[in-house]
Amino acid sequence: MSSAVSNPPISNYAKTSQDPLTDVVRRGMVAMGIAGLISTVSTLVLLMFIMYRMVFWRRYYEQPIARNQVLVLIYNLLIADLQQAIAFVISFYWLWHNKLVGPHPMCTAQGWFIQIGDVSSGLWVLSIGLHTFINLVMRKQVPMQAFIAWAVTIWVFCIIVSATGPIKYKEIFIPTAAWVNYTCSLWLASTAVDTL
After folding, report:
1. Tens digits of per-residue pLDDT, 21-43?
2. What is the pLDDT averaged over residues 45-50?
3. Which of 32, 34, 78, 187 is most buried, most CB within 10 Å of its CB?
4. Which of 191, 152, 174, 188 is nearest to 101 (CA)?
5. At the topology level of CATH, where does 22-189 sit?
């Protein structure tokens, strides 16, 4: 008896699953994975740089930059963007296995990162806009306690919104036609650039 774990047949997966990947989807996933990897690395470097400056602020600034609300808003937006970038890096997993199937634990992870990244990045961009409006148009400063409460509320809301579907339906994340079409459009765009 073999100790290797066999993959369930494709019939156990959603109809939108692909096993094996088509050439167009494969090329689109390569573009998506590379973009996600570049985004993940650059965002992580920027987050670490900002965190370093927040921790060792006395070497560079007269006041702690962690109290700079605009910087904190941007930092949170970067965390949201990092989650989206990680979702695209997971494309390499599907390329390695030459399939895109769901329900599957990696499909769930990818879906989770996309979901929370989409929701949180949208809310952080909205928060940056509102904060800018309050500061520049209304000429008011947001009290620090209210600012912290708002930041915590955003993350709690994002977690609740992103977790509700998976908790209720368990296997909610599966490959979608939109996802497959997105990878195809990436490949077509890269092909069009190559021909210019």
Report:
1. 888 888 888 999 999 999 999 99
2. 97
3. 32
4. 174
5. Rhopdopsin 7-helix transmembrane proteins (1.20.1070)
| Domain positions in the chain | 22-189
In the chain, what's the furthest Cα-to-Cα distance?
73
CA distance 74 to 142: 16
pTM of whole model > 0.85? no
Token reading at 2: 């073999």
State the first-to-last Cα distance of the chain, in angstroms, to the nearest integer: 55
Q: What is the mean pLDDT of the chain?
A: 85
CB 121 within 8 A of CB 151: no
d(CA 153, CA 135): 21
Q: Tokens 């890096």 label which residue?
A: 89
d(CA 182, CA 163): 24
